[in-house]
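Quick note —
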Amino acid sequence: MRVEGDTSSIGRVEAGPVRPLYETVFSFLREQIVAGRLPQGGVLQEGPLASFFKVSRAPVRRALEKLHEERLIEPRDGRGYSIRSGRTGRRGPGRGEVEIRLDSEALRGLFGELDTAEFDRSTAWERIYAAAEAEIAACLPFGTYRILESSLGDYFSVSRTVVREVLSRLRDRRLVEKDRRSHWVAGPLTARMVSENYEIRRLLEPRALVSVADSLEPAAIEAMLQRVIALERDFESADSETIERIDEDLHVTCLLGLKNRTMLSVISDNQLPFIVNQAFRRHLGLHVDESIPREHRLVFEQLALGAKAAAGAALEAHLLASERRTIAQLKVLSVFPEPEIAPYLLRIH
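Predicted structure written out below.
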């Protein structure tokens, strides 16, 4: 699997640490909002922003989350974020004000064609991260693999600095670790690892949801609920992206307003089961259990009713059921042949 785009120039970037791309996107947008160059009430969405910056959605999503944390933007009906006033912090648009959709054409009208030199430099590790994460996650159920740094760099045509940044972030997500010889290794994924990750999430995530429930916009809850209902209705034809979107709604978007940043960080770092389940679907062809959207719907229905404790209990039940499904899938995979692996992975056990 190769990433799109010419990465040959990225591999030569060695001067100084690689700045995370989302920080570059965040800094640009923050500056424009505070200076009043982006209109109050303007609606920012992942797709148009990714097109304007010529990057993937992931760094744009993180940049928007950070702007939301600083209360410069607010979720709007589950369809992006509305810009507050950079100078007053007042919400926008108010009643009677016109909503301004800032699509990629509108952004180019405001700022012209963006000089992407800084974005090209900072995007080095992010351009390959998703591909490396998916390929490594897909092999986890089948054994222990050593990650060959030089081969990984050659495979993606990036520098040693970029490779180490990617591996460091994969370690933060608990996908890889260093062995006694300081070799990077991945796997094996065991039922015990899955249970431990889910246990942490069951202890923290329902409590976090109850904590932020009052700050969630009713319109945003309704939009997320309607996405789940639509998935239930068209479940047989749903693609992976649609399923991952409802996962993100429940496990990421709903928790953005959590004031306990340490708790949010711990929850975010325990993404192993979700990453692996995505790999099961995308690389190994395992089907999604049709009970998943129903479990999500129960959470959002309770949130819509203002029943915080019931929503937390429904989320805890969903996480417990997800743990059981993931462990069952691991047992199924034990009889599968080993999939084709990337050339930078070397099976050692």
